[in-house]
């Protein structure tokens, strides 16, 4: 009888000690993660690269992303100048590899003389609502942006 009471007292404490393991900032940095800037959305993409073994540590080191509220637009125009395009190799790759095609006509590339790379977001009436410079964006950032901002 005393044994059962003793087990009843010990078992709940044992399970209480099995709380979720948290990694401190130094352990995150040692593991190669920067907890000050690491977004959990990036951790979720590790499986795309067959790196599932890193996911649990990554998720414990990341910053939870608040759902960013913004307008979504039916179309976007990536405006580039062919004469300047070589100065922006990531945008050039997006244009020359025809990556806009994956958005099913929602993203078009327009050649405008003298313009630096920019995205014009259009409403349903094809009126420009926002224009954003994409000079320093890489192809992944462009793709993520279009996935998030287009209907």
Automatic annotation (TrEMBL):
SUPFAM superfamilies: Thioredoxin-like. The keyword Endoplasmic reticulum applies. Belongs to the selenoprotein M/F family. This is Selenoprotein F. Residues 76-148 form the Selenoprotein F/M domain. Residues 1-16 form the signal peptide. It comes from the Eukaryota. Its main location: endoplasmic reticulum. It comes from Caenorhabditis briggsae. Gene3D superfamilies: Sep15/SelM thioredoxin-like domain, active-site redox motif. PANTHER family: SELENOPROTEIN F. It is found in: Endoplasmic reticulum lumen. Keywords: Endoplasmic reticulum, Selenocysteine, Signal. One of its GO terms (cellular component) is endoplasmic reticulum lumen. Coiled coil: none annotated. The keyword Endoplasmic reticulum applies. GO terms for molecular function: oxidoreductase activity.
């Amino acid at each position: 009888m005393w044994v059962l009471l003793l087990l009843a007292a010990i078992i709940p404490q044992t399970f209480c000690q099995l709380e979720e393991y948290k990694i401190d900032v130094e352990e995150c940095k040692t593991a190669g993660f920067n907890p000050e800037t690491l977004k959990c959305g990036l951790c979720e993409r590790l499986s795309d690269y067959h790196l599932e073994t890193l996911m649990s540590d990554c998720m414990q080191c990341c910053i939870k992303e608040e759902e960013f509220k913004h307008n979504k637009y039916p179309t976007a125009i990536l405006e580039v100048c062919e004469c300047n395009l070589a100065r922006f190799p990531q945008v050039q790759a997006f244009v020359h590899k025809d990556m806009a095609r994956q958005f099913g006509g929602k993203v078009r590339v327009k050649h405008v003389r003298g313009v630096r790379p920019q995205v014009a977001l259009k409403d349903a009436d094809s009126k420009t609502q926002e224009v954003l410079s994409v000079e320093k964006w890489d192809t992944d950032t462009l793709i993520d942006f279009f996935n998030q901002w287009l209907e």
